[in-house]
Amino acid sequence: MRDDQPTADLGFARVDLDRERRTGDPEVVYADGKTPEQVVAILARLHDAHPTRAVLATRVSAEAAALVAAELPSAVHDAEARAVTLGPLPTPQGRVCVVAAGTSDGPVAAEAALAAHVHGAGVERITDVGVAGIHRLFAVRDRLDDADCLIVVAGMEGALPSVVGGLVGVPMIGVPTSVGYGASFGGLAALLAMLNSCAPGVTVVNIDNGYGAGVAAARIARRAR
Amino acid sequence: MRDDQPTADLGFARVDLDRERRTGDPEVVYADGKTPEQVVAILARLHDAHPTRAVLATRVSAEAAALVAAELPSAVHDAEARAVTLGPLPTPQGRVCVVAAGTSDGPVAAEAALAAHVHGAGVERITDVGVAGIHRLFAVRDRLDDADCLIVVAGMEGALPSVVGGLVGVPMIGVPTSVGYGASFGGLAALLAMLNSCAPGVTVVNIDNGYGAGVAAARIARRAR
Amino acid sequence: MRDDQPTADLGFARVDLDRERRTGDPEVVYADGKTPEQVVAILARLHDAHPTRAVLATRVSAEAAALVAAELPSAVHDAEARAVTLGPLPTPQGRVCVVAAGTSDGPVAAEAALAAHVHGAGVERITDVGVAGIHRLFAVRDRLDDADCLIVVAGMEGALPSVVGGLVGVPMIGVPTSVGYGASFGGLAALLAMLNSCAPGVTVVNIDNGYGAGVAAARIARRAR
Amino acid sequence: MRDDQPTADLGFARVDLDRERRTGDPEVVYADGKTPEQVVAILARLHDAHPTRAVLATRVSAEAAALVAAELPSAVHDAEARAVTLGPLPTPQGRVCVVAAGTSDGPVAAEAALAAHVHGAGVERITDVGVAGIHRLFAVRDRLDDADCLIVVAGMEGALPSVVGGLVGVPMIGVPTSVGYGASFGGLAALLAMLNSCAPGVTVVNIDNGYGAGVAAARIARRAR
Amino acid sequence: MRDDQPTADLGFARVDLDRERRTGDPEVVYADGKTPEQVVAILARLHDAHPTRAVLATRVSAEAAALVAAELPSAVHDAEARAVTLGPLPTPQGRVCVVAAGTSDGPVAAEAALAAHVHGAGVERITDVGVAGIHRLFAVRDRLDDADCLIVVAGMEGALPSVVGGLVGVPMIGVPTSVGYGASFGGLAALLAMLNSCAPGVTVVNIDNGYGAGVAAARIARRAR
Amino acid sequence: MRDDQPTADLGFARVDLDRERRTGDPEVVYADGKTPEQVVAILARLHDAHPTRAVLATRVSAEAAALVAAELPSAVHDAEARAVTLGPLPTPQGRVCVVAAGTSDGPVAAEAALAAHVHGAGVERITDVGVAGIHRLFAVRDRLDDADCLIVVAGMEGALPSVVGGLVGVPMIGVPTSVGYGASFGGLAALLAMLNSCAPGVTVVNIDNGYGAGVAAARIARRAR
Amino acid sequence: MRDDQPTADLGFARVDLDRERRTGDPEVVYADGKTPEQVVAILARLHDAHPTRAVLATRVSAEAAALVAAELPSAVHDAEARAVTLGPLPTPQGRVCVVAAGTSDGPVAAEAALAAHVHGAGVERITDVGVAGIHRLFAVRDRLDDADCLIVVAGMEGALPSVVGGLVGVPMIGVPTSVGYGASFGGLAALLAMLNSCAPGVTVVNIDNGYGAGVAAARIARRAR
Amino acid sequence: MRDDQPTADLGFARVDLDRERRTGDPEVVYADGKTPEQVVAILARLHDAHPTRAVLATRVSAEAAALVAAELPSAVHDAEARAVTLGPLPTPQGRVCVVAAGTSDGPVAAEAALAAHVHGAGVERITDVGVAGIHRLFAVRDRLDDADCLIVVAGMEGALPSVVGGLVGVPMIGVPTSVGYGASFGGLAALLAMLNSCAPGVTVVNIDNGYGAGVAAARIARRAR
């Protein structure tokens, strides 16, 4: 069943079914602050409207994931990314490379990777290449250079985008994470560092916002030659 | 004369002549904090190394612009962008659209536009389409949709990227400006707003950093199909 | 029984029974940080003093709501608004329209709506009209224009008041909410955005302060022609 | 000559001639950051479009005021408010009372008063009634009570709205000013104080934003019974 | 048993037994972050050294209070102040008046009152006289005027010290509390307000620091004529 | 000529002539932001009302001081304190000791000393006893102990009140100064340090607020036995 | 068994086995945010690579410590420091002295001491010598002077490094701790104080970062004559 | 003439002549905020007390430098470092290496280098090795490794210490500079980055505090084997 009303009123939410027509991508469920029942209902409604293309829910709690598994058995749960997809993933166009500085940045990197994939890009992940052991980064330089868009995930001092941006000229999106303590102020130190990067062309998203980076990177990669 | 040493030591600066090979783009002169003589010398050295492609100096003071005009007569001064180029501009590939919310955001938008052009993209500007008169934005919707990358420049509450991001799915870079007063805290309000945009896929650069947005947008646009 | 002492001393609180005479509205119970017993006692005392007009308690916990239900059976609990009223609601004068950007802003919008109602205004609610799907806002433009006062509730980047303020000239109160994460800093991003709105005449209350917005809006609406 | 194009393109600005139709009030010139010539040109264009109703420019420098006086001799300069009007002021409807805590808050109070007047309200000013000499406030209580809307202007600790809000129930808009030093942080202390006022129904605008308060107050007052 | 070593080493702490000689007052136990056993041990050691004068522990948890009750049966627990005293209270000299704006400021006011008493002053408390019902403050003006030192406790916008400081010239110490939400930022709004008070001579202590205010006030009061 | 109206309206200011009756001290002129003519007029009016007791103007610019000298020849200018007095200084009661950490803290210390003197206390100054050369502090320990109230002035890390507060039990007021750079943030570092002092009973005033400290200290000292 | 691959890929982490060759010290496990199983696996792998020299895990939870005890019985748990070592501690070279202001700073001081020991220095601890009882500090002056590097740990106002830095010229590292409340803002007050110390040569690490201070101090001490 | 009084009272300052005995290094003149005459007088007095060892003044303005040249002809002015020395420089012990990320960091690096030299260490400088062209850093790796202490100076995102700290294990002091704009907040971004460095053992001084880093580094280097 295909939809033609632009908005679906579920009582607790008005789902924007017109968004794919305007922007090329369906609406996504930000599950934090919604009940498991609401997450299931919105996912189901979005899937009805977009049956041939995967829809996505992010920040899915364990309880919500369990109810999704019970009610929507074809849904797929990505535990590391704390996300759920429903429907067939698109054929990848272009290549996004997700680079993470440390092990603890894993969940944010996983969310970015899944979001990029759901939004139509091929995705590769490179992990644990923080600047304190920079030889690990040089070993993967060619893979960085071959990507259509880079997502660089780092907490603490957030230095990785500056170093990567001096090595390759690929479009790059920095994702500061809340990994750190004390004067990291919940990711503020990494955010400010990325905004002040001396490497030209680094763009930044909100702290821990792997999803936003994934959407932006997919849009860049899938229109690349 | 073409260069093959990776670094040119001018005494007061070590110019990275290898950057174009690594990243595809030559080094750029950030003129703020340098003397007019230094700006001239670095520009000249970069032009020697990259004679067939324009090199760029940003944040150029009136004094520095005057000395550049005297010493490097083929240089071109863009007064609105407070920038200078030296050498032939590249043939544009792809199209960047620079959208500015208000008249006072003009210098930052101009810097973004020039930087995108110097880095190889075609550029179009749309000005004074702030969200308090949103009909002006709808009138240009098609031009937004046709771009390969959008740069959206706004001060004060920085709301424009969220509205644009709900209308089109083109890759977008928000540039917060320091336009505002009181609790705008020199652009912090606009920066936070853009980082927290509810529109998916908005990426952000530093306050007033038109240059960085231009580089990133050109890299996205020039590899677009 | 009508009161004529200006202050009622309950031991743990001194209830300002004179406030209605000075300002037109009785004191309200802010239940957060009070025991369920204290909430019940103050509500009962206020009701004694103002028997013909509903009195209000806000930020009422589930425990306090349960005790109120047991001890004051005529009280009405509004679970979404986390609030309780006791006594007959006034005949509405004027019309307040409460507009919320997202589903998660619901509790704050509900508190605003109930407070406006208890303070004497008629109230209408419009939900889920965030700026990323702005067509939803245009669909309700006439309802906005017909109100005597607007309350506009939004978290994240807090852009909705700016857009609404460009569409209609109705008095408007923005309520930033703590919905968001990372660099939203508990609602600070939305607060700053609303304070810096480029739309003329936007006024603002504290983060999540639906109550304050409701009182202000009712005072504006009920004196409107 | 009356206008019917919604936007007037002056090259350096696109003037929103449709705003009065949408919101009831014409666009206003924020002169800060514009050249004297630009201020003159926009004022003239707005006056052409709204010949029977005063248009306003705020934050007008001495230089800009001089050029306005030379080029638009019928314009009126309010030096205390740092503002200029052009065209006949409207017949006042309703009454706004502007209350200022200290002498140094004068310019902001004057801007608020003029903006309220230009936007159609009658205006009364009460000055120098700070909370450290609170008897001065009680002496004017009746005048506060008779207003349709109060604008309360204060710097330093910003306590005046709380005290006024406990005395009368008139709609009130607090304007924090940058008057103060040290830990006032350019008006932040007063802004936070007003946002946290224990008096119900206080709304707030940006630091030093007399203009915004005046617009909001006029809209409230002119629709009052 | 009287002590003559200046420091008593308990292993987990070095108790400063010389402080009374230097400053006139014994050391006090800040119990937060110490185990119940440690609180008991330090209290006991201080009591040994100062048998004729009450010693004090503040921020005492319920568990620590229970163990103190079991181990040191002559200790007295002040539940509202979350504090314990051991030994005879001194004969009061001078009079401290503790004024609190709201019910929720009670624990901080109680800690201040007890600390002032333990440090040698007579203490009177006045509660719930916030600025939104300022007639309650005028009713107690004489009691304020008769004190040797005032402690004024307030959260939210922290306006009470400014109003009190305009009524009387008694030495005054403001105590901002963390009562509030949103942009109160855990008491920061009240702290900044008190630091910027327009009333002359207001001094301030840390957020929620009733103890510090009590010590300072007692030292002022007990040396008053 | 003695005054009996409580308020003197000078047009640009309403002078609170009743303040001495309420609080024991006349109003003081904060000259910053006032014209030299205004400073002269208010000083003259206050002197008329309080002819037998010195009145004070603080933050007096060189221009204002020159006009005061010309118009009010009996006025006395304290250049270090940037202040002016007019009228006979009171007979000192009690003793205030003003201690400053460094040479650059001199102007703030001088303002504190003069304010204390004008408000009725005897004053002694001790300078350049910063904690990095702590032997200088021990050399003056007896003078600290003999005071009725201490004012401790320090910028940078603001450590001096903590050290002094461990040596003597005299009432103490810390004055953070804006001396410092980088992460001193205009005195914020010193302010936070003093608010968090581990020495009991330290109270604090605003950054650079020597005047406020002087008033508070004089009130404490002049009522001391 | 000695390793010669520079990186060991454990799936969830890439252990930098080359770090000792580059920097002289093996990688350390920051256990916060890792599962007990991960902590055990990385510790075991590091021990394999560095069998003759102790490896370290910091911020070890009770659960992780229990699993380490079960799986790696030769590991040693330092409960105060919340850390675990595995393998023989090196022969100490040079002497680090860890000075803590208060009892609550104990865990951070213990982490610093253990880290310094593991990284090759001899370590001495001095506790509870806060500036409010400064005689305790003078009593240990010789021990401070004899050290090769000092680590000075303090929360609240963070004044101890300034006082120590005025007494001795030994290299010194300040560690601000999160001990405090209210306007200590989680250690920010102490951090700013140490950064602004008037004593020459004070260097600082992140809030609560005992580990970092220990590494730096050991590197200084072990190369001292 | 050699001194034996510990303090020299110049009226405007008390010079700590005992500091060299306690800490090994004489007092230094921080010239900012002092008159040229005061700078000359203190320098002369310090030179009298320490005739065989250079004394130092930092943050010396052009005016002060000119007066020093006239009055103390043997003084040496280091224009880049904005500093003056008087007396023979010590024989260098150990080696400090000062590494700067960019040209604009030059003055801070120069101040650090001179301070290290004056305090007894040999000094080497490496400039313009920012992380965006990291090959320049690898080219000097051996020189980094051979130093006894590193001073790493960087503005903007402050990433250089993290990269250097992953390459060598030499004691390192990071100096954040105020180079940058927008969200660099005067060096705050670089400061936070360095405090959160993922490289072990990085210590930090205040923004632009080259002097402090130089003192600390010299103390480390001159006691190295």
UniProtKB/TrEMBL annotation, chains A, B, C, D, E, F, G, H:
It holds the Pfam family AIRC. Residues 94-225 form the PurE domain. Gene3D superfamilies: 3.40.50.1970. GO terms for biological process: 'de novo' IMP biosynthetic process. It comes from the Bacteria. SMART domains: AIRC (SM01001). GO terms for molecular function: hydrolase activity. This is 1-(5-phosphoribosyl)-5-amino-4-imidazole-carboxylate carboxylase.
